[in-house]
Every structure is written in C-alpha cells, then in structure tokens.
Structure prediction request, 371 residues.
Amino acid sequence: MPAPPPDTRTKSDDALPDLPRKGRGSVSNRPSHRFGVADRYEIDDGWSDHDREEWVKARRKTILGIDTVRRIISRNSSPDIHFDRSINPYKGCEHGCIYCFARPTHAYLDLSPGMDFETRIFRKPDAAQALRRELSARNYTPAPIALGINTDAYQPTEKSERLTRGILEVLHEFRHPVHIVTKSALIQRDIDILAAMADLNLFKATLSITTLDRDLARLMEPRAATPSRRLDTVRALTDSGIPTSVLMAPVIPGLTDHEIEKVMEAAAHAGATRAGGTLIRLPHEIKGLFEEWLRTHFPDRADKVLNHIRECRGGKLYNAEFGSRMRGEGAYADLIQNRLEKAIRRYGLDKPGRPLDSSQFRGGDPQMRLF
Prediction:
C-alpha cells in the first residue's frame, strides 16, 4: 500500500468548521474512517459568524500524490456487474459527488472518505507502462475493460495528467475493447481515439446523469460537468459514431426520483441509444457523510429521503447483499425500477447493443506482432 503524500495542510485546515466548502461536496472530513481511532469535533470558541462565513467561502486546495503500481488491471467476480476487469488511473475523485460508493476506499490510505477523498488525489503515472506489460503477457486473455469505474477517469486532474489518454493509446494499439462511464465533458478531448476504436467495435461510452437540476447538481456533484454539458457530450459522442448510453446513477428516493422520466427524455433527445439506472448505495462511511450533507443542504426533506432509502433497503440505509444492492427491495424500490423500465421503453432507449469485440486483440510478445 502506498504511503499518503506528505501532509501539507495548514493548522487551520485541521480546525475547519463543519460547513460547506466552496466547490466541494463533503461538508466535513468526518468520519475520519472506520479504521481510525481519532476524530475531530467543532466547538464554539467565540469567533463571530463573519469568521465562519469566511471559512465557507474559502477553497480547500487539491493535493496530488503518487500511487506506484505493478499491475493496473483490477479483477472482480461480482455477480451484479457485467465486467470482470477494470482500470482506475486515480484514487480519490475531485468531482466530489457526495454519494460516491468509492469514498470508503480512502480509508485504506489512512485518509478520510470525506473531504480527503475529493482533495487528496493519487495518480498512477506509470499506468500506461503497467498496462502494456500486462497485455503483453503470453497468458493474458482479452475481455472488455471498464475504465474509470471506481473513480472517474476524466476527473479534473486528467486535464493536466493525461493518464487516461495514455491508457487509451495502449488499448488502441493492442486492439483491446474498453468501456468508459463518466460525468465529464473532458471525454470529448479523446474523440479521435475513441471514434477510431468505436469503428472497430472496441469502444462504447456511458454518461452518468443523476439530475437535470443545475442547482442540485452543483451541491451534489460540485466539480462534475453540469447536466446540460453532459447532454451536449452525449450528442458529440453519438455524432462521432460512438455508441453512447446514459446511466441515471444513483437514483435518490425523495430527491431525484421525480426526474426519472425527464432524464430519459433528455437522454433520447441527445442521441443516446440505451439507458439504465441504479439505486443509491451508502456503504460504510458514506451513510454518515450523505446524511450530514442532506441535513445541511435540505433540512426540510432529510428525514423523508432517509426514510425512503430505508424503505428500499430492508429498514437500513444500506444492504450489501448481491442481487438487491443495485436496485433495492420492497414496494418503493419496485416502483422506481418499473418507472425506469417504462421510461426507457417509451423513449426508445432499449435498442439492442453489440457486444464489444475481443477477437481483434493483438497481445503476447510485441516483437512477434511484427511477423
């Protein structure tokens, strides 16, 4: 496990009041994480409300660290997802989505799944080289790779680091199929490679659109592209011949579920050919972070939203059981699923999709590919 980068936060950072920070999703850095024994709590030290307001306006800077890896392809055997391998160029995500299921992974770095997750990002600068080694192994068997599933491969850091671009160049060279799910318009930068791969049936894209409400999106996923920019991106990708889907993930009962039909309609108008949706998941520390965020920004409906989530999770805020964790259980969860399915059919977002082609793979010893 890589060591976290040097702690360059100031003393004042550690004493931040638990108030919304400009451009960030988490309200606080608590809970520190489930493996920690220490925590920090706000106390009233007599400073005025004006000083507290200045904290709210202040920005917390992003710190980049390095995660050196020998292997870049992660494997999974989950029955709930349709791929068995993935690549994540980054740990942590600057998009700051408060509901992100990947937040608890920062606990393994002795960092908080709260503010640390979205401000302390670890990049994998040798990702492309590691991928080349793995694809060149004689015993490697190709199958579609999901790129940027745990954290977004096109988060803001990618604009300067270009790790995702390097990975795509290797995948294109090896004729290896890949699928990307993103909330970022930055994917348009790589349309030259992606369109070329799509022509060979080696690539398809999915844009995650959780809401069409710009104000809600700014609070819930503060550094992701606006909903309108994501729809523009769907259009740009489809106009370039790239098969593009829309995923409403997560659907949040009592907060975004009233938009299901509108999101599907907008997706169809933008040119998407397929769509889907998943229910919000709140594993480990996310439960406390999400409730804290909800009570800060939507105190009038917080209890309603949390009770609806419990109704879909057998009385709890989360149930990790395979088979139900993506869609929930009970009458309310069934209602959400039925609405998704009907809206998908109504707007023609159930067109058959072609499986990506693994037969073109140029693997093994790269020198042998010259003959």
